[in-house]
Amino acid sequence: MAQLGLIGLGKMGFNMRERLRAAGHEVVGYDRNPDVTDSTSLEDMVSKLDGPRIVWIMVPAGEPTRQTVAELGNLLSEGDLVIDGGNSKYTDDRINADLLAAKKIGYLDCGVSGGVWGKDNGYGLMVGGAASDVEKAMPIFDALRPEGPRDEGFSHAGAVGSGHYAKMIHNGIEYGMMQAFAEGFELLEAAKVVENVPAVIKGWQRGTVVRSWLLDLLVRALDEDPELDDLEGYVEDSGEGRWTLEEAINNAVPAPVISAALFARFASRQEDSAAMRAVAALRNQFGGHSVKKAGD
Amino acid sequence: MAQLGLIGLGKMGFNMRERLRAAGHEVVGYDRNPDVTDSTSLEDMVSKLDGPRIVWIMVPAGEPTRQTVAELGNLLSEGDLVIDGGNSKYTDDRINADLLAAKKIGYLDCGVSGGVWGKDNGYGLMVGGAASDVEKAMPIFDALRPEGPRDEGFSHAGAVGSGHYAKMIHNGIEYGMMQAFAEGFELLEAAKVVENVPAVIKGWQRGTVVRSWLLDLLVRALDEDPELDDLEGYVEDSGEGRWTLEEAINNAVPAPVISAALFARFASRQEDSAAMRAVAALRNQFGGHSVKKAGD
Amino acid sequence: MAQLGLIGLGKMGFNMRERLRAAGHEVVGYDRNPDVTDSTSLEDMVSKLDGPRIVWIMVPAGEPTRQTVAELGNLLSEGDLVIDGGNSKYTDDRINADLLAAKKIGYLDCGVSGGVWGKDNGYGLMVGGAASDVEKAMPIFDALRPEGPRDEGFSHAGAVGSGHYAKMIHNGIEYGMMQAFAEGFELLEAAKVVENVPAVIKGWQRGTVVRSWLLDLLVRALDEDPELDDLEGYVEDSGEGRWTLEEAINNAVPAPVISAALFARFASRQEDSAAMRAVAALRNQFGGHSVKKAGD
Amino acid sequence: MAQLGLIGLGKMGFNMRERLRAAGHEVVGYDRNPDVTDSTSLEDMVSKLDGPRIVWIMVPAGEPTRQTVAELGNLLSEGDLVIDGGNSKYTDDRINADLLAAKKIGYLDCGVSGGVWGKDNGYGLMVGGAASDVEKAMPIFDALRPEGPRDEGFSHAGAVGSGHYAKMIHNGIEYGMMQAFAEGFELLEAAKVVENVPAVIKGWQRGTVVRSWLLDLLVRALDEDPELDDLEGYVEDSGEGRWTLEEAINNAVPAPVISAALFARFASRQEDSAAMRAVAALRNQFGGHSVKKAGD
Questions:
Q1: Element of type H or E holding B217
Q2: In this predicted model, what pLDDT tens digit does every residue of B199-232 receive, in sequence order?
Q3: Contact D90 B126 (CB under 8 A)
Q4: Which of A59, A141, D127, D151 has the most CB atoms lying inside 10 A of its own CB?
Q5: Going by CATH, does the domain composed of B166-267 fall within 3.10.580.10?
Q6: D14 at the C interface (CB within 8 A)?
Q7: What is the ipTM of this complex?
Q8: Do the Cβ atoms of A162 and C195 come within 8 Å?
Q9: Does residue A26 carry a catalytic annotation?
């Protein structure tokens, strides 16, 4: 059985610790929250691990992750291995890896998919870095990934950064799929030709082309709230959707579906659209078309 | 000087009568509104015209226009000419023309652009029908179209229906252009890098690639309301944008810009989006992402 | 065990007959192709069925289906039931149902999903029509649908037309999902950050948010042809995608993802784009930008 | 009359020198091309200018411009002024300005629109930087901008960077407008309802809502080549369209039209689309739909 230091015991990290322990691995967790942590500091956590150590970072992307990597650079030793399992931008990985490589500490980036269901179902994993480092961490990956053939829930995508790159694209696809279901749902609701919309969607779970985990989740949501009117059509976006679109720009790849899905989220968060005020103003100017006055 | 029967004296028809009379033509208008009409009924209007008569219809597209054509079929005589200057769908024209042709009455369809500015600036005209009918009505077209070379403000597009077809596509392009300006306006507003947004837009009126009448109108709107916050981003659509998209479908022509402009209008009118409620519900299901509850 | 007349023994109908017979039902098929038919004519097929008869139509949508319905109207008797399992437009269903109702013959429309895999996996079914007619045909539906709970692979969507409506929306969603995967695949291919693209996609099959039947099929395609370069990026569209977009127009529902997916198919079939020739011409006009001459 | 150093005498810079000289200004140009240059080196150019000097850079954006700024930092003196009139990304301007400010040299960024027509029509100008620097260069701006009121062809957009920002958004809008015309053109061509497409487009030049300089250029292009079939639908993109989309991402502003226009250009340059190969492969997998084999 392997031993792992795990930094960040939020929604994801906490569940991953559960799954790893259930598989028999030893996990020394660290979190600023004293209610969940197994150690009092990063230093304390590191001291509790036998070498060569493996430390998994599961903290927010960006500054928190970069800072954690820097601190680990000072605490770990030659031959140790750091895995960033958060949602970092893939360009951060090369920087993190170089910083640690200067101290002969290994680095892997690991995209982790599956959300709150991962604890029981396992997590889809996409890993970037050296094959020898991947090999070292394989017992951990095998415990986190779903049951079944390894290559259906885990991939070694390539060099450092490629794991997060694969996860970014995965999320871009996810944006598009979710929006496709969402448009279909709205069409069914609006047209009122189908009388029992939740039943139709539930009936798509077997045999159809659209059967998928997202469909299963939509069925679940409709079971709880058949018209989804307990919540608002207000949708956040995390970094991956934006980064996917940046990659489309950088590589001159048309991405009309992924961009449309991202823009729909942007629009969902606007109380009023400056763009549409401009269109209303133009119509009013040329055609004397009536406009809604603010405050009407 | 020519003589014209003009049915429909609303915002457009009223102004057209003014322009035609200013050019010296005789116009006998008919409208249900007694304050503006020149005749008490269609029959009365027709009786006041010398043959061969030319009658211009300027009433709402669809049923009102079709019904007016049918009534005229009973009132007019062989050799008369009917012109539909409204925003009819081009497929209506063939039906109207055939109905009148059975009585040897001519038919032209005429797309009219220019809005409330047409009275003074002239109207852009696109005409479909037989060349001999176009010739008969040319004094009317010449009075309605803008000053300058005839072929820069008037076209004979082809057979019956082609005038409205050209106008439909014109409006589809207009949707796209307006949305392009609108997105640019919102970006300038949102980024706050440009300090004086109205000045920048005003400064685009000469020398730039985007100089256009729509830009002039946007400048005018910003003169009156520099942040366009006296109105709401709520935008109606008339038939032409939808029909243009139907034509894209029917002809397998990609129309991503025109469709995006149309969908932006649809979205502008939604209080809350069922689609985005579905996306929010899915995110909540898989990730435990927080959602805005209705009523929050 | 039930008895069924089945008209149309092409790719779909042939497999459905296999599945129905494997379940113990008696199927009398009719097809113009003598190699596969069980009867020499529609009349012959009908004569081989005991009343009250159930006849399933599985021929191309549009004229062929409408004509088959009309012929069945002359051959069947009061109390018989016709099921259109093809990809008819939902507006055809009301017409078909009324025609048969005049002769007291029942009518159901049934959207069928699952493609060539349906023979073994079962077909996802969405049915529109009267509950009593649905009840009569339930043994057939139960044999065609996948194993598992009935309501996960079958739905009674509502009145006549709602089955095909549900199938149309299903296919619109499918278009969007496929395009989402397609854009992700192209991004992975273009960026070359991920070294082993098929392995990453294969590794998404378990635990991830995008796991789905379409993903499984993409994995299968990549197993056979890892860069998908044995085929061309030329994609047909059938009616459902277009009709879904028409519904979006008719109901003023924004459908940016589904429309983008449809337009991508349109564009994939163009050797050269008139639109992009116009953009090239404009750039050349204002900027003297070089253009590719035809034939270069 | 003012004196100006002008670096870069390509298509744009050469014409600007002509226009400035025609207005009576003294221009000392520098270009690596000995056929057009007025000086043998940057040093030589600077030596020919009286202080306080104004130097206009008109070289490609990115490295060439940044390097020229650095060299000018070594050659110019306190109180001199550098204007970057190229298509630099607005984020470069702050860096350039700071570098020069360390030597008390002023800096303005100036977006320049109008293409090859600017020599005769004047250029639309958008300037960022200190008001005092703008004032110094006003005689130059007045000579370059079009006839007419200054504020219709020139704007002081705000601080350093805002001129290029305004130009970037201008170009984003331009992308959308061009694509709108392009889609309209393709629809007219494809549907064949309008018999005389060039005549219809020519007839839009007066009175219509879409009248614009781009329309005039489209008319000009159609005069030369009525079906635009002397060129290919292959369209380059410069930085501004991509940067506009990046700004949309960074500011969470929906930009469906501008992104669609950019993606259409990306797609126009693809011989074959990996994305559409994936869609074709998927259709083949589930439906046995025929595919075009590469090389067919």
A1: helix B213-224
A2: 999 999 999 999 999 999 999 999 999 999 999 9
A3: no
A4: D127
A5: no
A6: no
A7: 0.96
A8: yes
A9: no
